[in-house]
Amino acid sequence: MKYVGRKILTMLFTLLLVSFLVFLCFTVIPGDPAIARLGTDATPEAIEMLREEMGLNRPFLVRYADWLLSFARGNFGDSYSYSMSVADLLLDKVPITLAMSLMSIAMIVVISIPLGLYTARHEGSVIDKLIYALNQVIMAVPPFFSGILITLLFGIFLKLFTPGGYVSYTTDVTGFLGYLFFPSIAIALPKIAMTVKLLRSELIEEKKQDYARTAYSRGNHTGGVLYKHVLKNAMLPIITFLGMAFTDMIAGSIVVEQVFSIPGIGRILLTSISRRDYPVVMAVVVCLAAVVIVVNGVIDIIYQWIDPRIRLEGEKS
Amino acid sequence: MKKKLKFNACVGGILTGGMLLFILTGIFFLPYDPDAMNAELRFAGMSLAHPLGCDNYGRDILTRMLVGSRTTLLVALGTIVVGGGVGTLVGALTGYFGGWLDEVMMRVIDALFAFPSILLALVVVSLLGAGKYNVILALGIAFIPSFARVVRSQYLKLKEMDYVKNARIIGCGHFRIIFVHILPNTLSVLVPTLMIGFNNAVLAEAGMSYLGIGVQPPDASLGRMLSEAQTYLFAHPLQAISPGFAIVLLVLGFSLLADAMEEKGCRC
Amino acid sequence: MKRSISMLLVVVVSLALALTGCSGEKQGESTESQITIGIPQDIEDSLDPHKAVAAGTEEVYFNIYEGLVKPDSDGNLIPALASDYTVSPDQTTYTFTIRDGVKFHSGKELTVDDVVYSLKRCSNPDDPVLLQAGMTGIESIAAADDSTVVVTLKEPNADFLCEMTAAIIPQSNEDPDHVSDGTGPYKFVSHSPQESFVLEKYDEYWGEPAHIEKVTLKVCANADSLVMELNGGSIDMMARVTSTQADQLSDDFNVLEGTMNLVQALYLNNAAKPFDDVRVRQALCYAVDRQNILDLTSDGHGTIIGSSMYPAFGKYYMEELSDYYPHDVEKAKALLAEAGYEDGFTFTIKVPSNYTQHVEVAQVIADQLKAVGVDARIQLIEWETWLSDVYSGRNFEGTVVGLDASTLAASSMLLRFNSDNSKNFVNYNNPDYDAAYSRAVSTTDDARRTEAYQECERILTETAANVYVQDLAEFVALNKKYAGYEFYPLYIQNFASLYIVEE
Amino acid sequence: MQMLEVQDLNIEFHDHSMPETVVYDFSLSMAEGDIVGIVGESGSGKTMSALALCGLLSRHDMTRRGRILFQGKELLTCSRQDMRQLQGREISIIFQEPMTSLNPVKTIGWQVEEALRLHTRMTRKERYEKAIWALREAELPEPERVYGQYPHELSGGMRQRVMIAAAIVCQPRILIADEPTTALDVTIQDQIIRLLQKLNKEFGTAILFISHDLSLVRRLCHRVVVMQNGQIVEQGDTEKIFRNPTQDYTKRLIAAIPSCDKEKTEWNQIGTVVLKVEDLHASYEDAGNGIFRHGKEKEVLKGISFRLRQGEILGLVGESGCGKSTLAKSIVGLKRDYQGRIVGAEGRIRMVFQDPYSSLNPSRTIDWILEEPLKLSGVSKSERREKVREMLRRVGLETGIADRYPRQLSGGQRQRVCIALALMSEPAVLVADEPVSALDVTIQAQILKLLARLREEMGLAILFISHDLRVVYEICDRVLILQNGQIVEQGLPQTLYRHAAHAYTKQLLKASGVVEVNI
After folding, report:
1. Which of residues 279-318 of C touch A (CB under 8 A)?
2. N or C: which terminus of chain C has fewer CB atoms within 10 Å of its end residue's CB?
């Protein structure tokens, strides 16, 4: 329990650091939210008045403390450019990115684990080599380009979906998921390649361990050794990798949302950065960071669940 | 296994060598001015004079590839020098000394890690303006956490080795131990990581170009050329094929080499 | 093992097919007429028309809100919510008769109070956020009777009528930021940020009603995937596509050509060295080959211009200025040498990265300037940075953008070049120009005013205030199912004129 | 008919372009209830042979020339299915490293039951009972509790018992034990040996015992096979071979066993005191640094005092966890947070570590490694080279190895380099932490001789830490027995070994078989 408490404390500290960094960054970069809002017709008086109204003329630390206090109270503030609260804006967009990320994760798990097992078991076979080569090539294609290729292949040639034909989940859930299926492939593809490769090499590495030899000595066949003994051990680094991949995927979804014209969190983030819409940027970044940190916390828990060694250490300290 | 290893090293070596040779050629010889525009040659197809055709400004694609791959190489190398350098330093110091320094630095690294890298790049670019050196800086900073983590775990492991203790007993200073005694031993892990980092930098540069925060026109880089070309993907696919192919070859060659090295590193 | 993998693939693929199959059917179901129009940027402004600043917003709000007068497709102002108006001979008193039977989208009847409220609201100098730029010279706004509004000016202003396009909104609307209530042919339905902005036909429109029931504006922020989205069928219409994009469209589309109605130029900071020397600016004008720019960036489409005025301005536009500086490298070099820059110089062109057409032109200009030994570096910056650094901060050497006009009054293009104007971001400083301009605005005689404005334009050209390039060609991609698109000389999209072609 | 009959087994590896033969013409026969030992140094092929017998080597690696007959069944050519039927049921194996040979993420019970799940149709309950039975047979305390635990929760000795329990759960005919005690403390070692003996007697399980430790083999085995470089040198009855070895190699092996029988010349304590340790207390903080975490402190040294004189070799004996490593660290200055006093020879104490593989920087040449202490004191390049050469000669190495990397040297050579490194800066005291326990017996003898010679030549004082009572007897002038951070007994080896007063000393002596002659 003490362990969990300490963990949460560390997480909060990290989050605080992230928020401070973002706030700092957006104080130093050029571009004035007041000017951004008023455009080319703005008079200097109007800009000055708006700056005052938005509280931009206060010192940096005061603004940060102010933001932090209202954030702690669950108030994300109002968007500068959209006349709505940040919370409303994000609540609308979170399900989109979330659905996409979850679909990608599901694809990664569902596809790469069997493939990893297969290639590790049939190490050196033709299919193994083929998958290896395919993996290497997939990893070498820039993500946005594979997104474009997927659009070309499935959208234009096979006509499985309408490029840019995003359907909101509020109007049509199946259509929504159907459209997100393809961008999810684009996000998942390089991760699948990496996971298969990593899982394969981990399995092969673990297969050489003494305990695997013990398992063989009891009369297990190769499959038994792989599934019953080696897989669980080999999953440990995979889980860590998936945690990191998740962080990557959130960043990657920014690009993919752009390619597939999906109005998700990444799009909101990009536009609000360029619009200097700080309340939105802060909320998005802090929430993303929170998700990343929480996911890593969950990974820790899964890790403990799988690896009894960590469990003990956790209890001890 | 053995055979495949050699195969990896061979193919990787050939691809990487080929690309390096290509880039090297570009330093000494350019068939045309890479930025010279010519309205008559817009979207010219393949010909003897222009083996890869011309782009939307009538610039020779081969020439731009020669220049662009050099920029890409520069950006990727710069990124791993910045990211790898700082990451290694941070990882080495935190891993070796531990204690509160480790705790504080790792929190900062965690924070950096939880920060979407694209956002980081955007911030750096907004702050300093776009351009290849700022791209290097942006990607370099974004890459610090991963290198720092790898190096730190190596140092955590290696500092317990007896030869490190021995070095302390014979009176070596901490910094001598960190950089002269331990660092060379992290290379077997660090070098493949750096090579993978190189690949990620090439891909990230392409991604940044796509988002319009990469190398500045008229400068060419493979990523920039690829993202410029996608506007004309339907009418003039040729313009996208060459840089796309070059990126794939470059990354593929490096990752095959990295694989081969990693295997070899495990062995000895 | 093998079997399980192939099973998996089957499941995945069939799932994908099932899902997309569903979504495909859904689209065919709707019976009401509708059109999906792509917009390059989200409508981020408030729903309050007086707060709207982005051009992209204003062109859409044209369909929702109306002023006392509004422009037609030739740029002439025609009565809208005012059924008639008169101008006093001294041009200081405007009398508007409010149209009968006009209803707001909320069902409320338009009254004279709403008009007075709206006009006062956007001409109040104490509220700079709502204040519309041209509304500063108003003496009084008053309702003469139930159907007449009288606006009195402090001094004559020939262009004042243009300001009367300002939107009229009901006084009773307490939250104009979030509740839209206008009188236009379309009414606002919903807005999902970064996704869509939906309009619906207003059945009780006072004028000729719109043809299409539902207009969905879909945000297509990514210019690169635009062609795929058009060809894929998720957008029916997109304005301002480039010639290359237009080339790649499938047979389903008609491509309509017009002009963008803006002055694209390499704007030079006249206060910064070396552009404070008129010879340097002239040299750059000679060094730039405008036809070559058009050839390289838009297959030769576009109108070459030579001053801060584009053809849609009609009588104010001076075509003869467009070849004032023919492409002449030698002359450019000579001028540079004369100014003391025989070895050329280096400067930076800041370009807002989101405007592809300006980025492309900047690249070509940079390439052309090399021939005279000038090394122009391109720096892409974000639009917001451009606004604060270049436009407000005037911290730049050169920038390629296009300036447009909010009204067809010549002043909307020329005012900014007065040496003390707050929008004079190029720091143009010429007493002759200031004099000519004040002559233009002070006269009530149309011919003399036109002549004075033309004088202004000529001065700009002769002193090479900026390197003027072109009024960009505009291409509109419209699915062949639809027709009726009208070009406006202003930044306006009129959805009401669109209709569905019967098969 | 013999139960196990091996004829002309040849093992070749095909990793490299040239096939590499590791075992030549191995032949062996075993009957029910036999205990046969295979001895040999590292690289002798003993482990390979054992793995081949229980089908853990790829058949690809074995030439078809030989035969392995188990109860008349040909194991080299039978189907894999048949082989698996035997594995774990008829033939079981336990390995050297109990730490890594158990699956870390599975419970003990699951692993012990595995053979039952694979080979029998027992119900869950039957399996549980059988597993508990096996754990009890392996003399694990509280088998019901152990059943639900994970390997990392057990000590090394307990893990090896779990391995044994898992191996015997199907009551196999033959148990192959590959160095089962090497990684364990002497007292535990002794217990495991006794356990194996008991199993052999109770169930008649034949045991093939593979070890490099001749004294263990002598205590346990009926017959012994001596291997060198993949070949059988000699085999026969244990006692016969130990008394009358016929082959040179066997003779050398036996001679290399440090003996506790011979008389030692008494050490005259006249040298000056070079190191004085007074009332040393130290604790060890486990797993925890940083702002939010605090490790628990555990006292490992509880008031240690002793003196070390010039030219003296002081033995320090104790089992794992007794605090000897902490003591060594404190003396050489790697650990500073202790209470008490360590006086003398400041800066002139050097250390030799147990594992010559990890104590030399793998990415540097021998030259570089040896020059490092000189570089720190600013000696010129040519002088450094000269000194390194001289030191290499002194520790009995060729000067030609100077430009090689540690991985290119053998274990013995590496340990010599380690000693050379320690001596480069002319120390007064050498702390040798188990310097020979990772080495083969013949190499061990050479290193011991080297240390003794260096002591003579340089007047070095050596603190010799070891768990091996025989080695300590051989080389040390005085012995300290350490238990739980306290010195329980000390004295001259010859008197201490014969007239031990403390119970722990007696237990140690008994467990390592040293005193059997004297009981």
Report:
1. none
2. C
